[in-house]
């Protein structure tokens, strides 16, 4: 294997390229990205949390890679001088009905090897004075960072290790005239790249790239928009660090929470609503073909039948600031509508199977000359450095890392 192409300059694609170059320095590697800079989609539109790994099923890839990825991400930021902070977070039971879920989460954190501390109501007020709740879990290892800056550092490291990152280069097709794959690249000055291996880290378009490559995939990417509000500067003191609700076991998202970002801003959100295009960052963003592709997918129709009540509540919050703030007031009763302003939204690429199941774990498959990362939702940014190493070790059998010196 001498020629490798990685599709996608989000944090998973860049981390995978970085891992491979460190372990096989003789490889000629090219990262191609359709946008004009890294981290333009999922990576650059999240709230910048370095997750602990508390939520994920013990033994799952998410649990394993998030826990170690947390440590690796913090170490990488320290090495590169990227601003970050391990500030901790609280997960709060708003009332007695949520205590069983909180206790289950506390037990899961212990099983996953996460340092967790139980807080009674008085102890919670010492950590977050403005939060209302009957109990909470404090997770000390959760942190914050700007993942765009991490991606910029990774791109620099890839180039320092002899790789290349090309922007404004969408993939338009593949052909196989020999033992290699030819990646047909569009954009100004677009050209063809012959490769022994293509690693698909295309995020919102990973299933399309897989089908373009001729790989029979049984899942579809469904885009969910997460909408945020920002707390005005004069009310940021209401949130010291990160505040999360107990997740609703009947809905596969974490719920509206509060995040102090590394910039000092404080965000509230997200909700989770169907986006009407894969890059649908605004409510008015619509692509009829992409929307029909989602609505016609039997997996989505089955999902909608299961979660229609929760989906309607999320849609109502999307169109009503009052309802959105009311959700936030369950934990932060002092927050008022006038205290928040709209903030940029993100879109989560969620893989969905034909039975209507949201894929819960990271999902990677190999098909000949291709490796496809088909599902990498949160906490993929946290776990990204470990996801890259997992791909290189599991699918390429390369285990010996070389020293990182010379990559600063």
Commentary on this structure:
Strand 16 (257-260) and strand 17 form a beta hairpin. Helix 1 runs parallel beside helix 5 and helix 8 (298-319) packs across helix 9. The longest helix is centred in the C-terminal third of the chain and has 22 residues, at 298-319. The protein is 32% helix and 26% strand. It has a domain at 1-83 and 144-218 and 354-408: FAD/NAD(P)-binding domain. The strands form 4 sheets. Strands 5, 6, 7, 14, 15, 16, 17, 18 and 19 form a 9-stranded mixed beta sheet that branches. It contains 10 helices and 21 strands. It is an alpha+beta fold and 408 residues long.
Helix fraction bin: 25-40%
In terms of per-residue confidence, which ranges show pLDDT below 50 for 5 or more consecutive residues?
402-408
Radius of gyration (CA) equals 21 Å
The total strand number stands at 21
Proportion of beta-strand residues: 25-35%
Corresponding CATH superfamily of the domain at 1-83 and 144-218 and 354-408: FAD/NAD(P)-binding domain
Shape: globular
Q: Report the mean per-residue pLDDT as an integer.
A: 93
User: Mind describing the biggest β-sheet?
Assistant: 9 strands, mixed
The CATH topology of the domain at 1-83 and 144-218 and 354-408 corresponds to FAD/NAD(P)-binding domain
The secondary-structure class comes to alpha+beta
CATH architecture of the domain at 1-83 and 144-218 and 354-408: 3-Layer(bba) Sandwich
Number of DSSP helical runs: 10
Mind telling me the CATH class of the domain at 1-83 and 144-218 and 354-408? Alpha Beta
Through-space gap between termini: 27 Å
